[in-house]
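Today's session is about reading a structure prediction critically. Students often jump straight to the picture, but the first step is always the sequence itself: look for stretches that repeat, for charged clusters, for runs of hydrophobic residues. Only then move on to the predicted structure, which in these notes is written as discrete structure tokens rather than atom positions. Here is the chain we will use throughout the hour.
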Amino acid sequence: MDGFHWHPDARVYDGKGVALPRPFLVSGVCSDRPTALALGHAFSGGPFRIGAEAAPAPTVGFETLTSGSTGAPRRIARSFASWRHSFAVNAGLFGIGSGVRVAVLGRLVQSLSLYGAIEAITLGAELHVMDGARPDRQWAALRARGVQVIWAAPAQLQLLAEAGGAVLPAVRFVLVGGAKLDTGLRAALREMCPTAQVREFYGAAEASFITLADDETPEYSVGRAYPGVEIGIGGPAGHAADGRIWVRSPYLFQGYASADAGVATWQDGWLGLGEIGTMENGQLVLRGRIDRMVTIAGQNAYPEAIELFLLGLPGILRAAVLPRADGLRGQVLEAVLMGSGNEAEILTALRAQFGALIAPRRVQWRSDWPVLASGKADLAALAKT
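Below is the predicted structure for this chain, in token form.
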């Protein structure tokens, strides 16, 4: 069996609540808009890619795109089976199946949204693609349509929380991928969806699901291994105290399709990722991405950990930590922030948490926040300011 298969019970609605007809099936490369055409490509049974229309079309399997938060998006080559393997797992974990109302908030060019949409249709769910709707209208639609499962990245949920509205009592699961939730957004989700269970996935475009975090997961961790995943630290099947994360599972990609190869590498059936981490009591703890790691006076600094800390401070809505050239240390860190707060108090809190050497030495405030199609911060655009 090749390709993805449209379940006869599946129904699809756009952001305005308009029912989309089961699309004409055509393979190849297309934009993520209009939604019906994009889904037609995804369920054609042949090779396809949504997005990067100027690049060569895949000849086997399908391709997704990385977020491009640290550079141009890369094309990820996948077998259909690498996603199909997890459909049954999530059906069991989250009760996704015929008649269950599932919403994706992001564009289908984003692999998380595309995955959620294809999984919902394959399992016979009622899919609501809310790309293009304003966050306040997304909120209203989620409530009016009685959506039960939401797939979203933290940046999309942040916009939803800021829009506000009446509680969403029908939501049973909020499935989060792309980044770790900060404490403020987690609290906002509890108010937004008081009866929902929040489940966070740690993964990568190259590896799909790696860990799953639930209500019992310690705050410092991204959870235990997702079903079917083996994790090694420092090497394939490794148990180093700290090192590169390696995974083996049925969900892994086949390779990079673009000329610009990424940081993931293969060894003995294991995939080495572009992140550093450690295992503590069966829980995976992330240090940060290899390609974002900054060395300051001989010490390694991981901007992601600092960003997560900043987002837990009162008034901070967005945060990015970027390296800047420095004549004495080679480079130092700067915090780019959106929201409000006392700059001196923020810098003091950073020094107390991370030490004077690693902590950002200055703060830059922004009234706007450039984002990518994935909803993640556009770090390249922020670095130019």
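Discussion point for the tutorial: The CA atoms of residues 208 and 251 lie 6 Å apart.
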